[in-house]
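Newbie here. two chains, one complex. Structure please?
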Amino acid sequence: MTDRIEATLAPDIDPAWAEEFVLEARLRDVPGNRIGDALGEVNAHCRDAGESAAEAFGDPIAYARTVAAQSTPVTVPWLSTFGPTLVQVVGVVLTLSGVGTWVTGRPLVVTWGMAGAIVLLCAGVAGLGMLLGRALGAIVRRPILAPIVGGLSAAAIAAAVFAMLLIEAPIGELPFALVLCVGVAVLVVGIAWEIGVARSGALDDPITAPGAEVAPRPRRVPWVSLGALGWVAIGAIVIVLFGGR
Amino acid sequence: MTEEQTWPGEWLRAVLSLAVLRAIDAGATYGYAIAARLEDAGLGAVKGGTLYPLLGRLEDGGLVEAEWRAGEGGPGRKHYELTPAGHWMLRDQSARWARFAELTRAHLNDTTTEERHD
């Protein structure tokens, strides 16, 4: 993806230099239009001077840091980033609990363990997302770290959630229809929120050519939303097949 | 590079903003032309990594205005122009710099003369 951007905005300089510059600028939250502007300046100067980007501008990472120091960083909208996913996780858990109570024919006994597990799951997903966001620079430059850090953290969260579920002290009982309806409603809210965020472009910050207007984005449905429905379908099939009355 | 063009970096840093404003006022409107003008003036080769962040600061400070103009069949160039505040700054700072240089020269010559008497 970045190859095309660099070839368009800076065709006269070393693509490897441009790639390192863009990567570091992105990691330092330099706005996309400022990255395009700086890359255009580098390209024009090198073309006019007949110098390489490394000769004229030095190390791409150091130059990206200089540009970042002069830019107002893009703020990451944490709520829009993680909110929809967390709501969908809660929706999936509630919906599958509703399916489970329907299959067994018994009302859902809500335990303190369940309530704690949902809170723990949400906190874990948000915490992991923020951790990966902060460690992005290290992870991007050492790709082996991503599966290790991500995998171990996810395993720790899963283990904590399962441990929490062992607490069986009941809070109360809920009929399956109520659990199922609330679960589906929460899931729909989560998916609608995610589609709304994607359509609003709140998370978009494209690298644009200097002086160019940002092209209107095609209206699209994020396919990732359908992932939650997929998990519900798979979970429901498993529960119906193996959790029969 | 001649001896004249290897000025100490801290001298150049002190005068570079003013020299860039002057280069733009003299008709060098884009980055490379500004660098070439400074080199022709005997101030030495200013690298892109120094020049463009400085131009960015001048733009942020409202002393220059920048505009991208399309190139022929490829990416264009960013052209700079002094704002009224930039013109004022150039006049004011040039006069003060001339006075400063005069005092510095007088001071250095005085010292040399006194040392000669010792």
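Moderator note: The interface with chain A takes residues 30-33, 35, 47-49, 51-53, 56-57, 60, 67-68, 71, 74-78 of chain B (CB under 8 Å). The helical segments of chain B are 9-25, 31-40, 48-60, 84-117. Thread marked as resolved.
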